[in-house]
Each structure stands twice: as structure tokens, then as C-alpha cells.
Amino acid sequence: MLKEIYIPDLLRLEHHTFKTEFREFFTDLQTLAPVEGMASVRHGGSFLEVVVQAKAIMTLTCDRTLVQFNHKLTIDTKDIVMLANPIELPRELEVSVEDLTESYPPNGSFPLKFWIYEQLCLAIPFPAIAPDAAPWQSQPLAEETDHRWDVLKNLLVSE
Q1: Does any domain span residue 33?
Q2: Full domain range(s) for residue 81
Q3: Phi, psi (5° rounding) for residue 121?
Q4: Would you say residue 149 lies in a domain?
Q5: Where in 44-111 does DSSP place strands (E)?
Q6: Strand partners, 65
């Protein structure tokens, strides 16, 4: 059972690491079977190292043919999540790209189940194309030639 991890508790574990295997359904993710996988969260002082491998099967609707098909959804991800005290920012502030990192307070909790749910959602293909859907190709129109123009071809003068 996936749960929130109280971050200071990680420091009491061997190698400061929480490991778990899981097999469960996610409420907002419609899968044919429970999501199966393993997760590891390691406290690295000022960051958390999160490693997750998971798989599930979803029924998707092909955006090309509108036919439903089963898709094997897999994630194999490793991410670093910063630990930082929340900063009170003004409502309007210009933010650089470097400041757009995910962070959690060092004395707070890490929502492991929600984090895995987000990774699974990011792995859903867009657009969803069934493996047997023929690639879209524009078919050239059949050229119907008016044979009356063939006479003009004979009038072309070669240079």
C-alpha cells in the first residue's frame, strides 16, 4: 500500500532509503489491472532521490481510427526532488526557468502515490494511435488527362 512518507523518518532507515513493492489501483487512472511496480525514496540531505518502475494496461481510444485498443503503460524513472523550506513569494513575480523545480519542506511529507500517479499520466501517449492504425497519407487524385491536349505536346519546339 502506497502512502505519504514523512521525510524525517527516512533518516532513521538503513541507507536513509524507503523501498516498497506495490500492486494497486489508482482512483483517477482507469487501468484493466492494478498498477504493479517498485519504488525507492532515498534521503540525500538536501534532496530526495525517487526511483520508480511500474507497469499497467490501459484501454485507449485511437485518435486516428476511434477504435479502442489496449496499451501497456510503463514507467522507469529516476528523479531528484529538492528539499527546501517554502518561501513566501509575492503574487506577481517574474520567475526564471531554473526556479521551476519541484520541492518539499524537509520536515514535511512526500506524497509517493500521487507522485507515481503523475508519472503514469505523463507516460500516456498523446496522440493515442493504435499499433495497427494505418499511417495517414494523402492519396493523390487520379489524374484524368484530356487526350485533346496531346496534340499541343507535339507543337513543342525543342531548343
Answers
A1: yes
A2: 4-87+95-133
A3: -60, -40
A4: no
A5: 47-61, 68-83, 103-104, 109-111
A6: none
Partners of 105 in the β-ladder: none
HSE value, Cβ hemisphere, 13 Å, CA-based, for 24: 15
Q: Are strands 47-61 and 4-6 parallel, antiparallel or unpaired?
A: unpaired
Q: How many domains does the chain have?
A: 1
Q: Are 113 and 3 in contact (CB under 8 A)?
A: yes
Instruction: Please write the tens of the pLDDT for every residue from 133-143.
Output: 777 654 555 56
pTM listed for this prediction: 0.75
Mean pLDDT, residues 41-64: 94
> 81 with 48: CB under 8 angstroms?
yes
- Whole-angstrom CA distances from 70 to 1, 37, 128, 136 are 26, 19, 11, 21
Residue 103, in any domain of the structure: yes
Q: Which cell is 85 given?
A: 523550506
Q: Note the Cα 66 to chain centre separation in Å.
A: 22
